[in-house]
Amino acid sequence: MPLQTSNNQAVSYPHEYWSSRLGFVLAATGSAVGLGNIWKFPYIAGENGGGAFVLLYLLCVAVIGIPVMMAETLIGRRGGQSPIHSYALLARQEGRSRGWQAAGWSAVVASLLILSFYSVIGGWAIAYVLYAARGIFDGVQADGVGKLFTDLLARPGELLTWHTVFMLLTILVVARGVRGGLERAVTLLMPLLFVLLLLLVAYAALSTEQFLPAAAFLFQPDVSKLSAAAVLAAMGQAFFSLSLGAGIIIAYGSYLPKDVSIARTATAICIADTAVALLAGLAIFPEVFASGLEASAGPGLIFQTLPIAFGRMPGGTLFGTLFFVLLVVAAWTSSISLLEPAVEWMLEHRGIGRQTSAWMVGALVWAVGIVSVLSFNLWSDVLLFGRSVFESLDYLASNIMLPLNGLLSAIFAGWIMAKVATEEELAMGTGIGYSQWRLAVRYIAPAGVATVLLSSSGAIALLFR
Ligand code: TRP
Fold it and tell me: How far is the CA of 102 from the centre of ligand 1 (A)?
């Protein structure tokens, strides 16, 4: 339901709430679980050598991810508004500078940048629904799926079409309002995706006999593969996958009823999200090894391996179609979360109705997305510091902006907000104790993020030269 109608623009607050704790958990889980888990995690893990990366990833989720998610949730609930306004309001309450709203701005910019390329990849997933449904995967081999994928990327018109369709889907839900759209999509379909992934893991394990090598690749850390770049990739991936540092959890937290335990919900969401990523890895790497594809094949990894499995299994057309449909849905419940913070801000700030805001911001993001579409074909030769335009956007937004914004939200909750305020917000908390959380957001998370960013930028190496 829209918050306001176009002829009644002043009444934005107090605004709607999730129907229950479960509503928030579902929506935040829907945001967290998406292409980041199923498409990105396996290929980034593959590019960064497997086990060592996965270990670092798990460490980042536990030590930085959970406390930062708690921080962002409580900033949102306490501020009760979009990230930009929540920061501004809470800073003012503590007699601090309104300049803190810049942290909200940076978050909103990151969310829109990410959405611009996220939608293009979501478009790939839509294209694959149709491939699967038409039985194209039937009996296909590694070179066949490889060609299918590279051919798709070589056609900008087609990528643009699917990017447009995906963006339209996103805008339509956000225009309808948070509760009406979000909660329902997640309740049924996310558990279904989880079950399907479990089946895929079992099938990959049984039919390729590559389960043990795959598990060893993912869980046996090879210390020689550790590098500053791998640490940064792991941290960026943790923020990306948990939807942190882009204002999403702040925006969703602003719809969270007061009587809900933030510690418990944040922990549950992080565990669920990590479980899906690991399952996706276990479903994909047996196929990667069986088909002789390189683990470091890049963004095409799932699109070049899973179809082989679907092409081999009985009922593969049905399973394949169902899988890619669910992947689109998972991406969809994430993309709506990426659009929401900016739309929420327009609602509050400009009094522009939800419908109009969603279409305006959506159109802007769609246009930016064209850059990513072209970076896979016409502009594939354009490299910035050795990265394609798409990779550069992803690197800047995911590995730099998200951790920086997360750092700001940790500092804000740990140092700017009054202790009584955060204590009150977390009072319902069970699970992680308040003092551990405070230690994490005041010292551990900021130090961790700062160290990783500095060391990967070479600043620390310079210091110790
Ligand atoms: N976490 C989502 C995924 O894994 C993507 C996403 C949604 C996201 N909201 C975000 C990423 C905010 C970074 C920041 O697919």
Answer: 21
| Dihedral sign computed on CA atoms, order 150, 155, 156, 160 | negative
336 φ/ψ angles, rounded to the nearest 5 degrees = -65, -35
Return the CATH number at 344.
1.10.4160
| Percent of the chain whose predicted confidence (pLDDT) is above 70 | 91
10 falls within a domain: no
In a domain, 57, yes or no: yes
Give pLDDT tens digits for 197-226.
999 999 999 999 999 999 999 999 988 888
Q: Which residues contact 300 (CB under 8 A, 6 or more apart)?
A: 43, 146, 149, 150, 153
Mean pLDDT of 434-440: 93
Instruction: Tell me, in angstroms, the distance from the centre of ligand 1 to residue 371's CA.
Output: 20
Decide if 5 is inside a domain: no
Pocket of ligand 1 (CB under 6 A): 31-32, 34-37, 111, 114, 240-241, 243, 246, 248, 334, 337-338, 402
**Domain of residue 302, residue span:** 25-463
Q: What is the DSSP string of 401-449?
A: IHHHHHHHHHHIIIIIS-HHHHHHHTTT--SS-HHHHHHIIIIIHHHHH
Q: What is the CA radius of gyration of the chain?
A: 21
Considering its fold, how many domains does the chain have in total? Answer: 1
Compute the distance between CA of residue 452 and CA of residue 236 in angstroms, rounded to an integer.
10
Q: Is the pTM of this model over 0.85?
A: yes
**Is 169 among the domain residues?**
yes
**Site to substitute for ligand 1 among 44, 73, 240, 252, most atoms within 8 A of C-beta:** 240
